[in-house]
Amino acid sequence: MPLEENDSLATIGDKGRRLWLYTDRVWGTWLKRRAVVSYLLFFILLLAPWIDINGDPALMFDIPNRKFHMFGMTLLASDGLYLLFVMGFVVFGIFLVTALFGRAWCGWACPQTVFLESIIRPLETLIEGKPRTREKLDEGPLTAAKVWKKSLKYTVYLVVAGAIATTVVAYFLGPDGILEAQFDPFSHPAGTGFFIGITGILFFDFAWFREQTCVVVCPYGRFQSVLLDADSISINYDEKRGEPRGSKRTAGAGDCVDCKRCIQVCPTGIDIRKGVQMECVGCMACIDACDEVMLKIDRPVGLIRMASMKQMEGGARRMLRPRVFVYIGLICIVAVGLFVTLSKRKELEFTLARAPGPAYVEMADGVVQNHANLRISNRGDHDHTINVEVLEPVDGKIVVPGIPVIVKAGQEQRFPAFLMRPTPKTPDGKSKFRVRISDERDFEQIIEWNFLSKAQM
Ligand code: SF4
Ligand code: SF4
Fold it and tell me: What is the CATH number of the domain that holds 384?
């Protein structure tokens, strides 16, 4: 059976050869709405690392210093729990939106769609013209005009890729770091390598890979079959109304005039009339295109529309269903978890944990020593001078080299700590230590330590 009839991927031909799409653009109601959202998201993405809040970027993943700046809050390496809650919130949020509105993420917010549909395709149309003109240009001989247009197009793609990559790297190096790296590439070899890598990947995506990212690479598309059900909204062709397709004048023909306009504007090249497909990214271009045709032939719009499978079969859509409640429940759990942990978050936090190695060491003078690691997290905006002392037992002692120490604002530091006392006379060798860790003002934290030594039978 020929591949076309075998319902193969629209962009992959015989022997796996890539079929290049010459997608047309339709400036309809949905595209206008999507354009507003896309440019807003693009604006936020570009600005976030350059906005200063309390001396730090609004968003920055400072990997070398193990810090994450998020809208005025600084999370340290020991704050992984908050990030876990935030991630949970985002993931369950996407599950909920998908269950309710189908692939809204892909069509409206995914960076791939935003970059490609709102920036790259308009630029391509501006430089090379409409689909048929582009196709003729590609098939035609290598003329001076072709060399000029292609060079201009790829240069513009490279500039856009470089601008986006600069912003992406700024999320990791911060505004000063990225400017330093751009003016002196050898000052930040990792950042420069990252910038070149991202620019290269984006350029490859814009110039050649395009819809293959959604069709072949993106795992989210694969999850659709488990995230969607018959009540989820998707882009649907009304088969009852549209079939049998044919000319407007044919007696008994449905509303679809088989103009194929919906296929021409589809960024993944699919024919939505074959039913809901994995390659559909929910961009709604086919809705705009078909509505335009329907208005021209004086038929009601909505032959292709957003609806649930149940609605397409004439039933009513059920918004509230078990999976929606489960996702809302999970979102509430992570939201409460995040709220509770954030409300308990302290500016200064200390942890004393047993160090790897023997549980205790007996020294020649009869003193027993436990080896620990002291971690001091300063999440505030000021430096703190930290001191450590033993409250109990009276013969106990703690030695932390370097203490009292200044821990800088937004820093987390680790120190070795040695807790010591003469061999305690307890049958199981265990005794309690109470360690007070304080700053130069009035902050203090008391930590209880289970001191281990040899059992005294
Ligand atoms: S755009 Fe509408 S009328 Fe034209 S082929 Fe597609 S569904 Fe049929
Ligand atoms: S089928 Fe329609 S909504 Fe889906 S990707 Fe193609 S144009 Fe966009």
Answer: 2.60.40.10
